[in-house]
Amino acid sequence: MTIAEKAGDLTPRELSDIKEAEAKAKREAHPEAMGILMYMSQEKGVSYADFEQLKEKVEWTEIHGAAALTRKTMWFVKKGCRCPYSYGKQQVSAVTFPDWFLDMAKRWLNSLNLNDQDKDSTFPNCVNLNLYEHGDHQVAWHSDDEPLFRGKFQDTRIISVTLGAMRKFQVGLKAPRRGGILKPEKGSMATFNLGHGQVCTMEGLFQKHYLHQIAKGTTRQARINATFRNIVEHAAGCPLR
Ligand SMILES: O=C(O)CCC(=O)C(=O)O
Ligand SMILES: [Fe+2]
């Protein structure tokens, strides 16, 4: 059962936005894109002290767009993994999960009942952290469909945790690139406010059929987001391949 199938915490507005996107998916004849693909919850285990600790302790890498700095990132992976991660043309090396971060993450995701113990662990084996220092920082329309996750071919689960400022997270059906630019299908977009302590998942074949973005906003406050993922196809050169 996906986390989304257990969902009960969506507001009527959020539910109707998802339903609308699903109806659109049906019209576009993407049968696999149907079903509830997102889950939202508010987690008490996420604290402002965590936010401060991450901001100070993480050695953030700057991600630059065409002209400006768009955000700062960190790519943590499970011990032994060496898979790099690419942000457009920028590639960053893997950093092993520090113990302090794993302790924090297990507290955040406690209510999802993931198994973090044995070889059948369902706990994510990597995470991308983003630091948006203010409303000008953003991530443009994209899907997390890198070969590492095989999200175009099999069910994947990305679990996003927000700390700090609230930002608008938008999703929409994939459309062919126009002028080299990725943008969702007209009329298919839904917007969710992700605030401190909010968990949001993208499941199933979400990355195959949908795009997502954090749009620019007006806030002067910083937001940190952790998107936990699962590498299922380790990169060439990674000892876990
Ligand atoms: O900040 C967010 O909520 C989304 C981040 C994201 O899409 C990513 O890291 O790929
Ligand atoms: Fe993403």
From TrEMBL:
Q: Indicate whether Plastid appears among the record's keywords.
A: no
Q: Mind listing the UniProt keywords for this protein, alphabetically?
A: Dioxygenase, Oxidoreductase
* Residues covered by the Fe2OG dioxygenase domain: 123-232
What InterPro entries does the database record attribute to this sequence? AlkB-like, AlkB-like_sf, ALKBH3, Oxoglu/Fe-dep_dioxygenase_dom
GO function terms (MF aspect): dioxygenase activity
Q: Origin, by domain of life? A: Eukaryota
Classification via SUPFAM superfamilies: Clavaminate synthase-like
Tell me, what's a Pfam family for it? 2OG-FeII_Oxy_2
Is RNA-binding given among the entry's keywords? no
Q: Which PROSITE patterns does the protein's record reference?
A: FE2OG_OXY
The protein here is known as Alpha-ketoglutarate-dependent dioxygenase alkB homolog 3 (Alkylated DNA repair protein alkB homolog 3) (HABH3) (DEPC-1) (Prostate cancer antigen 1)
